[in-house]
Amino acid sequence: MYRSKRDADSEKLYECTDKKTYEFETDIRRGEYIYFVSETDNRVKIGAGIEASIKIEYKKYMRDELLGRNIQYLFPNKTYNEPEKEIINLYDEELIEDEDADEDFNTKKRSIWSLKSDYLSLIDEKAIEKALSLRYYGYIGKEIKKGEFEKLYEKYGNKSGIENIIKYDGGFKEYIHTGDKNGNLNQYEMSQFISQADNQTLKNLTGYKDSEKLRYPLFYENGDKYYRDILKVSENNEREQRKGGYESEEKILVGKIRGKEYEIRKEGVYKLYEQGIKNEEAKVIVDKKTKNIKVLLKRKEKSGI
To answer: How far, in Å, CA of 155 to CA of 302, rounded?
Structure first.
């Protein structure tokens, strides 16, 4: 079994010498491919015989900064109605003259709420939940999983229009928005195609699925995306070591997140430990008013797409 890519020498990955079932897992990036070589004089066994006995499954791993690339938050830029409490902090309120006021009476004022320029960095999990419920978001990606695409395709009117701008990737079992043969993406056609999605389908398209959970990005002030997990540490009268999180004079046990144990040790300043090893790159922030603790992890990039 070999791995190769354009204009590069092949790399031998595995060799099968015994008559038995082999199972391999390897990283394949875009532009690379794998192929199989059989050493036998029996031509009947070459080709169809081998092809029938090989099953290839692809799994996609994206770098952290690409995980939120399929979603765009679409909060109204201006509104005369007071925003919901979960998202009101994303807006500035301004009093303006009411144009509909009766000229015979004193000038009346009314409120208008404008979306803040740095609203992305103010989004939290509650704001995301409200955005999803109010459909204040849209899909801006290029890949659509086979099942999701075919549900939309079945009820879409202009089938030839969407067929002209997509291609099917059999490896990852997804449809790719590539544009027509002239390179025209025809974004309007794709937007029309996506607009028919119901709420759950749109959530599936825009979210990143991690351990059966759909995740949506938060933003640093510089615009970079990140994800976070929130765990509640037990109150003083509820503390039981090794049962969820707990706090002692020396440390705060956060617990297990995505297979790794985390704890915060009080060393004059708070320091994060991951699997018992101090993470020097992590930043632990304590809110003096609420006593809430936020940990910002600088995560390593995963190999893959």
So the answer is: 37
Q: Is residue 39 part of a domain?
A: yes
Give a yes or no: residue 71 inside a domain. Answer: no
Residue 302 included in any domain: no
What 3-state class would DSSP assign to 65? helix
**pTM of the model as a whole:** 0.60
Using CA atoms of 66, 134, 174, 9 in order, give the dihedral in degrees to the nearest 10. Answer: 0
Calculate the CA 171 to chain-centre distance.
21
In a domain, 219, yes or no: no
Enter the tokens of residue 212: 């059966």
pLDDT category of residue 236 using cuts at 50, 70 and 90: very low
Residue carrying structure tokens 């101090």: 278
Residue whose pair of structure tokens reads 């797409």 in the numeric block: 305
Domain limits for position 31 = 2-53
Q: Provide the domain count of the chain.
A: 4
- In the block, which residue shows the tokens 């320091």? 271
